[in-house]
Structure formats: structure tokens, C-alpha cells
What we know:
The protein is mainly α. The chain has one domain (11-424): Amino acid/polyamine transporter I. It is built from 14 helices and no strands. It has helices spanning 2-9, 14-22, 25-38, 43-67, 71-78, 80-113, 119-168, 185-196, 203-215, 225-254, 265-320, 333-354, 359-391, 399-424.
Amino acid sequence: MYTKFKDMSKNFGPGLLMAATGIGVSHIVQSVQAGAKYGYVLIAAIIFIHIVKYPFFLTSSKYVSHTKKSLLDGYYDMSPKYLVIVLGLTSIMVFAMIALVFLVGSAVVANIFNINIPIAWLAIIYMCCCSAVLIFGRYDFLDGIIKPIILLMIITTFATLIIANSSFSSVDTSFVAEKFSLFRKEHFLFFIALLGWMPCTLDVVVWNSLWTSRKYKDDKKPIEYKKVRLDLNAGYIITAVLAVAFIVLGKIVFFEKVADLPEKAVPFIGSFFEIYTKNLGQASYLIIAVGAFFTMFSTVISVLDGFTRTFSHGLAILNNKAGSKKNKFNISETKIYNIAILVIIAGAGLVLLFLMDNMKQLVIVTTIGSFVSSSIVAILNLKLSFNLSTQSKEFALNKMDKAYYYACLAAMLILSLIIMGIVFGF
Length: 426
């Protein structure tokens, strides 16, 4: 039975890495805050955005199984400028986003292990450790650790919910959900931010295609679309279910403590553990601590690999397909990866050391960049899906499928325009 389970588990990997990327700040910070502030009402928003983004994530499974190449290759084949645009937008966001996720990850580490060094330096140390792991372990390491980590996250999350529900089941909190209103600016901004990071930004679909193409790189047989789609669906569903679970946890445990929960992610983590320990005890604290640690560890290391792999493969495509030999550099993709990861941690380190006071502005920049980038990726993925529809009967789209794509794209574009309008005061 174990052998059968092990063989079946080999079909999973990139989809679970995608889940690990999404189950991080958006879950242990935003989802918990959503439940604590507004009750269960934003569960509907979680379901909505997963439906809207799904066809664009599915493009990854379709394209990789059809071509054995990543979406970056697909963008280049449509037009080199598309690849350049995607890399350019990624460059705008990378340093601030890496700094943010490692900042939250380090806050979890600091609170669990009572580390008192400045959080910026702890984040830099954390980045260096993860970078070393990726330089020497690469995809094989990620693929090896992600399955037990995802399983551990699921177990600890639902164990936490069971303990919390048994401790707070007698409290009536039905009034909380009525407070939320889309017509209040602060509520709407929170709503938009939650949607933007659920299940993750659409940039991650590119990472998923890179991980998938890497997984099957040495496989001489054609890639089975059903297997790749099953892997994607598994990761996608896990992300959605855990997002709902953290909203429920937020309402059950923290609804009475909304005023005590800081808005910023780093102090929020400290309050999160403090309130949890006070109400549910040290034994249950260990469960949520283990879950939070591995949740953020899987996020920071997969995000770091995703950004680095995007740059290394994207630049390798541009280099290898340069117009003449004179324009090409004699450098392997592996070396580009090593250089890229060092540049990324150096840039993110500078952000942490010198721009901590401007973190709010950096969050705004990354949020806008993520929305714009997501909209562009959505457009490109729609084009790829429509192209595949004409090339393969397996991926043929009927009128309803196309209408679904267009409706989801319209929703993405509208959300992007709204957030830009609010930020810039249009």
C-alpha cells in the first residue's frame, strides 16, 4: 500500500509548490484578519476569486503538457516583447515582494524561537539560508519537501480549528459579519488586497509552468494533461480550503480581540501568537506554531525560487534565441540562476535595511504591480489558450468556454482599474 501511495504521489509536485506559495501571508495574516473583522462574509470573496483566476492557471497545465515548455517560452513564441514585458514587471516587484514575505516569515521565526535580533537582519539571514538551500538543492529539494509540508499544514490547521471551536463554541458572534461594506473605502481596499493575493498573484502561474516543465524535463514520454491538471487542481483546492479555514479560525479565536490585532503583518504575528496562547494554552500553541512556521517556510523558499527561476529561464530564452552569435553570452541557465538569486537577496536586503520606514509605500507599489502584472498574464494566457484551441482537439474551446475566459478577464481588468483608481485618486 505504501508503494502504491508513493507511486501516486510522484504525480504531484508543481501544483503543491503553487499552493505553498499562496498559503502564506495571505492566509495567516489576511485571512485571519478577514475572519476577525468581518466574520464569514468574505468566504464568498475567496470562492469568487478562485473561480475567476482558475482558467488562467489551467493554461499552464495545457501549454506545458502540449509543448513540454514553460509559459515564458510561449510568450516569447507569440512575440519576444511579451516576454520582455513580463520580465520587466517582475523586476519592478521582486525586491519589495521578497523583502515582505521574508519579513513576515522572520516574524514567525522570531516569535516562536524568541530571537531578539533586529527583524531586518533576521530576514536577511533567513534569505541567505534559503538561497544556499536552493543553489545546492534546486527543484529536486523543493519537490521532496513540499508534500510532507503541505500535509503538515493541513493537519495543523484543522487541528487548530478543532481545538479553537471546542474552546469558543458557546459564543454567539453573528453580528460581526454585518459590519463589512463594499462602500466603505477601508473595507473595499482590504477586499481588493485579499482578492489580489488569493490563491496567489497570477505571476505564480508562470512559476507553476516552470516547475512543471522542470519536473518532466527528462521524461521522454508525452506529458499526460490529466496528471498535470490533477496536480494543479489539488494545489488550487488546498489553497482555497485553507483560506476558508483561516477565516473561520480568525472569527472563532480573534473576533473579540479585533482592536488588539495590529494592521501591519510583523506586529500582527506577535499578537496572533500571544492571543492564541492566552486563550487556548501552551499545548495548542505548539500546533499553531508548527503550522505557521512551515506555512511561511514553504512560502518564502518557493517564492524565492519562483522569482529566480523566472529571471534565469527568461534571460536564457532571450540569450539563446538572440539574432546572431555575437549577441549571445556563453553562460548556462544554471549560472544565470545562481547570479539571479544573489542579486535578488542583495536587492531585498537593501530594501530591508534602508526602506523599512517606507514599507507602506512599497506594499502599495507591489500591490499595483501585482495587479497590473496579473492582468497582463491573464491576457497572454487567454491568447495562449485560444491558440491551443485551434492546434489541438484536446484543448478545443467551445463558445461557453470562451465566454468564461472573457468574463474572468473582464473581472481581472476591472479590479486592476479600480485599485489603480483608488491609489492614484482618480
